[in-house]
Structures are given as C-alpha cells and as structure tokens.
C-alpha cells in the first residue's frame, strides 16, 4: 500500500509543470520590480501615483459596471422558488434565526430550527410549523445528532439549505478581555459555522443531485463586521467574523462544482437580543479588572463606553424584519446572489468608504474611536498623528 502511494506521489510530482526559461525570466523581472517599488520613498510615490491614476479613471469603470449589473439583474430576475426541500437554521432562540424559521414555515417550507435553550424550542414548537431541536454549535455530538435526524427524515432529498445564524457579540478591548473571550467568539462565530457545514455537506450534495434544476445553498450570516477593517471595542467579534467571511469566500469556490451555492449575509446593527446586554456586560468587565487597569482607564471612561454601547444600539439600529426578508430571499430566490449587505448605512455609507485608500479609512476610524472617550491614563489627550 505504501509503495503504491509512493509511486502515485512520484507520478504526480513528475507531471507537475516546471517553469520554462521565458517564465523564469519574467518572474525575475517581476521580482526586481517588486524590490524597486518596496524601496524607501519609491514606495510612497508609487502609492500616491497609483491612487491618483486609480481615482482618475475609476469613476467611469464604476459607472459602466453599475449599468451592466443593473441590466443583468433586470434580465435574470426569475422570482422565488416553491419549497423544494428542508432548511436547517441555527441560532433560532431569538432574532434573525427565529424570524426566518417562522417566515419560511409560513411559506410552506420544511424548517428545522435549532436552539440553545429549552424555552426557544418550546416557543417555536407552539408558534410555528417548525421542527425545533436543541443544539449547541460548539458540541460535535449535538451537531451530529441533529444531522442524523434530518438525514433519517429525508434519505433521498437531503438538505436543501443550511443557514448558519448562531452567533455571539461582546464589547471589550484587548487590554480588558482574556484569551477565553476571543476563543469563545471564534468557537461560535467561526468554528460553529465550519462544524455545521462539515456535517451537512453529504446532505447538501445529495439535495443538489436530487433536484436537477435547484442547487442547494449555504447561508453564512457573517455581519458587516466581517467586511470592516476593524472596529473599536469589537476586536474579538470582528476577528471571528473576518474568519467566517474569508472562509465563506473559499467555500463558495470549492463547492460550486457540486451544485452548492454559498451566500454571505452582512447586516449592520439591527435590534436583536444580542445587542441588549452590552452595557451590563461592560460594567461587569470593569468590576472584574485589577486596580491598576481600572486606574489606567478610569470609571468615567467605562461609563461613557457603557452608555455609548447601549444608546448607540438604540439610536443607530434598524428593524430586524429587514434582515429576515433578505434571508428569506437568499433561501428562496431563483437567482442566487453570493453576497447580501443589509442596512441603509452599510449600503450607502460604509461600502463607499471602504473604497477609499486604507490610510484614509484608518484615519477616519481612529479619530472616531478617540472621540468616543479618553482613558484617564492616556499618554496623549489629542488626536493621533499617525495615519
């Protein structure tokens, strides 16, 4: 067996293409150009020159692209699918997951909704035509048990759609939070998604083969934080969502040949249970810190941030029904869209801002973060000079 594997590896290695002389020369020239552009001063001038030319011509490219995409959407719009198979949704105790489960069940879809709590399961069982199940996305045995139930109930048609909605969000700076805080976010917001997809793939492939004209789908709710370069007080949440966003892009390319479509849904702040406890959470963090850390930041700083965490979520959030509508469309629409950004501020402010050079983006967000509050032990009370 080992000899066969060794021979196979040698055969593959021998068939791998090797660069010819022309390709090698091209690589050398490109390497020399890269070294030149990386030199001091040259890199700065190249950077400014590139962005000058970019913004000189980009408006025409963007305008043409918008016209083409609008025409494409108008021509290819095909309406919504009728129920073609079961849909499995995680994180249905509250918020988007619960709303989506109820909305799809009203449309006649066969919905499996997983919840962390018994209360969540009981509510869905009483208020909708939903199969509600207890499941923790961080526990392998829970995930396998749920998939086994879906598999047993649908041995031929498999699973039409998996909606990875389960997620957590807690504010806090790196200085305040321990490693477990980061691990907790990653375990649920990223590894939970991966775990669900790994277990669901055989059922999703089966559904794609069973429905000749309907590809199966994976929806990953990665939040707009998965697109932002980073956000004040949300390093753990942002890191987990960036991981999920990047992985989702890879997953889309890996599964397209199996008839499985992958969609990222990126909502900004909407009114859900995940947003209600941020103020109390920050107060608990402050009370658990050492005396030295409390002195570094000061109680006034914490109170301002706690108030901002609460009032900001009250003033600058949208109705969750808008996200539920986007999710229903992502599950049922005939024409698949690989990404859906939900929220007026994201669509008309944040997305355009992210087209700016990164240094300008950093300057905008750095100054916003400084304006939020200043720690008692800050070395500088003014705006940062590095951009």
TrEMBL record:
GO biological process, one term: steroid metabolic process
Name used for this protein in its record: Uncharacterized protein
GO molecular function terms listed in the Swiss-Prot or TrEMBL record: oxidoreductase activity
Classification via SUPFAM superfamilies: NAD(P)-binding Rossmann-fold domains
Family: Belongs to the short-chain dehydrogenases/reductases (SDR) family.
Provenance organism: Nannochloropsis salina CCMP1776
Transmembrane segments: 45-72
Keywords: Membrane, Transmembrane, Transmembrane helix
Pfam families from the UniProt entry: adh_short (PF00106)
Entry superkingdom: Eukaryota
């Amino acid at each position: 067996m080992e000899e066969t594997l060794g021979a196979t590896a040698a055969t593959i290695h021998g068939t791998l293409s090797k660069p010819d002389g022309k390709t090698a020369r091209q690589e050398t020239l490109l390497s020399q150009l890269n070294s030149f552009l990386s030199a001091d001063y040259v890199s700065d001038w190249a950077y400014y020159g590139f962005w000058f030319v970019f913004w000189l011509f980009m408006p025409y490219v963007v305008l043409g692209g918008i016209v083409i995409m609008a025409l494409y959407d108008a021509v290819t719009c095909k309406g919504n699918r009728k129920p073609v198979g079961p849909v499995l949704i995680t994180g249905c105790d509250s918020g988007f997951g619960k709303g989506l489960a109820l909305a799809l069940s009203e449309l006649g879809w066969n919905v499996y909704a997983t919840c962390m709590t018994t209360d969540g399961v009981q509510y869905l069982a009483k208020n909708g035509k939903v199969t509600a199940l207890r499941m923790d996305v961080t526990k392998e045995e829970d995930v396998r048990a749920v998939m086994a139930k879906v598999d047993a109930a649908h041995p031929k048609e498999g699973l039409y759609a998996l909606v990875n909605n389960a997620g957590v969000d807690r504010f806090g700076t790196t200085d305040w939070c321990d490693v477990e805080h980061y691990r907790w976010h990653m375990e649920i917001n990223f590894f939970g998604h991966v775990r669900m997809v790994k277990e669901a793939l055989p059922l999703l492939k089966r559904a794609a083969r069973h429905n000749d004209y309907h590809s199966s789908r994976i929806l990953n709710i990665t939040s707009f934080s998965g697109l932002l370069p980073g956000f004040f007080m949300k390093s753990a949440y942002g890191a987990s969502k960036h991981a999920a966003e990047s992985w989702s892009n890879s997953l889309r390319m890996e599964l397209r040949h199996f008839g499985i479509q992958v969609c990222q849904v990126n909502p900004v702040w909407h009114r859900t249970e995940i947003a209600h406890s941020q103020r109390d959470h920050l107060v608990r963090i402050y009370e658990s810190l050492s005396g030295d850390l409390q002195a570094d930041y000061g109680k006034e700083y914490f109170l301002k941030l706690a108030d901002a965490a609460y009032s900001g979520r009250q003033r600058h959030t949208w109705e969750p029904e808008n996200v539920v509508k986007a999710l229903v469309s992502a599950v049922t629409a005939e024409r698949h869209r690989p990404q859906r950004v939900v929220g007026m501020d994201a669509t008309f402010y944040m997305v355009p801002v992210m087209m700016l050079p990164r240094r300008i983006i950093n300057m905008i967000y750095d100054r916003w973060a400084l304006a939020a509050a200043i720690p008692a032990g800050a070395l500088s009370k003014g705006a940062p000079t590095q951009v």
